[in-house]
Design brief:
alpha/beta; Ribosomal Protein L13p, Chain: A; two-stranded antiparallel sheet; 5 helices; globular
């Protein structure tokens, strides 16, 4: 069974934890519009946290720790909510993220989220900051 989730106006932590649980149950999960996912909170604090993670760097052999592509940022958040065992790796393989809606999922019924009230920023805005 495949679950399709529309990421528009969804909160990053809530959608990530839901996806991690469903993937651990053995379901395939597809997230569309991942660049429109909301990170709630003060922009300055969010910016400082992502820049701190970015400065951690990585090695020239392994690549950077934090990508600046919204779908990869989302997948990294989901990866952090999964166990590092074989089951967690298999669950992560069942998760697919897309910045837009692929033609395959245009007509499919999607799970939607309501809008967050208060301070929020999208993954797209944060990823542009990291480029």
């Amino acid at each position: 069974m495949e679950i399709v989730i529309d990421g528009e106006n969804a909160i990053l932590g809530r959608i990530s934890s839901f996806v991690a649980k469903e993937a651990m149950k053995g379901k395939n999960v597809v997230i569309v519009n991942s660049k429109k996912i909301i990170i709630s909170g003060n922009f300055v604090e969010i910016k400082e946290e992502y820049m701190r993670k970015r400065r951690l760097g990585g090695s020239s052999r392994k690549g950077i720790i934090l990508s600046s592509i919204p779908e990869k940022m989302l997948k990294k958040t989901i990866k952090g909510m999964l166990p590092s065992s074989r089951r967690g790796v298999e669950a992560l393989m069942r998760v697919r993220c897309y910045n837009d809606v692929p033609e395959k999922y245009v007509e499919v019924e999607k799970i939607k989220s309501s809008r967050n009230k208060g301070d929020f920023n999208t993954l797209e805005k944060v990823s542009k900051l990291l480029k």
